[in-house]
Write a structure and sequence with these properties.
single chain, 278 residues, alpha+beta, Phosphatase 2c, domain 1, five-stranded antiparallel sheet, 38% helix, globular
Length: 278
C-alpha cells in the first residue's frame, strides 16, 4: 500500500487585513514501518487567547509525541496498540494529551517570561494561563490495517473513497462560534475518538483533516463535501506532488471568497500503487 501525505496552512483573508498571524498549526510524522501520524490544530485567536498560535503548535507536537511513544511501546504488536486505542482513546489517552499540553504551556509561558496572572489569593492562576493558549486539536494515526482518529473541538476529519464520503468522527458541535478547547478544565471529557479498519478493497482512500475555516467557507455541508470529492479526484488524476504546488493558492482563494478565517488542510492518500504525478 502506498501512502502520500501533504499539508498546508494559509492565513485567513480577514487576518491579513487586520495584521494577525495564522493561528493554525499542523504536523506530519512518518515512521519507518509505514505508519503515519497527522495532527491539525486551530488556535482560537480571540483577545482572551493572545498566544493561541503557540497553543496550536504545542497541541500538534503533543499529539504526535504521545502517539510515537505508544507506537514505540507497542512496536511488536500493532494489534495491541489498536486495542489500546479502542479502550482508552477517549479516557487515558485523552487525559494524557490534556495533561501534557498544559504542562508544556506552563513551561512555554515561563520560558518566555510572560506576565503571570494571579488568583484572588495571589497564587499563580494556571487556568488563566491555559486560556491564553486556547486551541482545538485533530489527530489521525494511520497504521497498515487500522486508523485511530482523535478530535477535541471543531474541524473535520473526512474519509473519501470512490463511492463514499463522510466524517470519520461525528464531532459534538456547539452552536455559534464556541468550540471545545484544550484550555478548559477537564477538556479530555470533550474528546472524541474512533478506531476503524482499513479495507484495501476500498482503496484508493483519501483522509482529509481540516480546520473549520475550510468548511465554514461554503454555504452548506453539501458544498463542502463536493469540494472534498473534487480534491479526491484531483489527487487521483494528478498526484499529491502536483496538488501541493497549488494548494496554498487554492486555500487562500477559498478563505478570501468564504469566511476569511485561517485554513489548514492535510491530505493522506492511500492507494494500491504510487499516485501519478503526471
Amino acid at each position: 500500500m502506498e501512502r502520500s501525505v501533504i499539508g498546508k496552512s494559509v492565513i485567513g483573508a480577514s487576518h491579513i487585513r487586520s495584521g494577525k498571524e495564522c493561528q493554525d498549526s499542523f504536523h506530519i510524522d512518518r515512521y519507518d514501518d509505514g505508519c503515519i501520524v497527522i495532527a491539525v490544530a486551530d488556535g482560537h485567536g480571540s483577545n482572551s487567547c493572545p498566544y493561541s498560535r503557540s497553543g496550536s503548535t504545542i497541541a500538534v507536537n503533543t499529539f504526535c509525541a504521545a502517539v510515537r511513544s505508544l507506537h514505540d511501546s507497542y512496536s511488536d504488536s500493532l494489534y495491541a496498540l489498536q486495542t489500546y486505542f479502542n479502550r482508552e482513546g477517549e479516557i487515558n489517552f485523552a487525559q494524557s494529551i490534556e495533561h501534557e499540553w498544559k504542562r508544556r504551556v506552563l513551561k512555554t509561558h515561563s520560558n518566555a517570561k510572560r506576565e503571570v496572572p494571579l488568583t484572588d489569593s495571589k497564587e499563580k492562576d494556571s487556568n488563566a494561563i491555559y486560556m491564553q493558549y486556547g486551541t482545538t486539536l485533530l489527530g489521525l494515526f494511520i497504521a497498515p490495517e487500522f486508523t485511530f482518529a482523535f478530535q477535541l473541538g471543531d474541524g473535520d476529519i473526512m474519509r473519501i473513497t470512490n463511492d463514499k464520503i463522510g466524517q470519520v468522527i461525528q464531532s459534538d458541535k456547539i452552536l455559534g462560534v464556541e468550540t471545545h478547547s484544550l484550555c478548559k478544565r477537564n477538556s479530555w471529557k470533550s474528546a472524541i475518538s474512533s478506531v476503524s479498519r482499513i479495507d484495501e478493497l476500498e482503496l484508493p482512500t483519501l483522509y482529509m483533516l481540516s480546520t473549520d475555516g475550510l468548511a465554514n467557507s461554503y454555504l452548506n455541508d453539501d458544498e463542502f463535501q463536493k469540494t472534498c470529492r473534487d480534491y479526491y479526484a484531483l489527487i487521483q488524476e494528478h498526484g499529491t506532488s502536483e496538488i501541493e504546488q497549488h494548494l496554498q493558492e487554492w486555500l487562500s482563494e477559498t478563505s478570501a471568497n468564504g469566511c476569511g478565517d485561517d485554513i489548514t488542510v492535510v491530505f493522506a492518500f492511500l492507494s494500491q500503487g504510487v499516485p501519478t504525478d503526471e
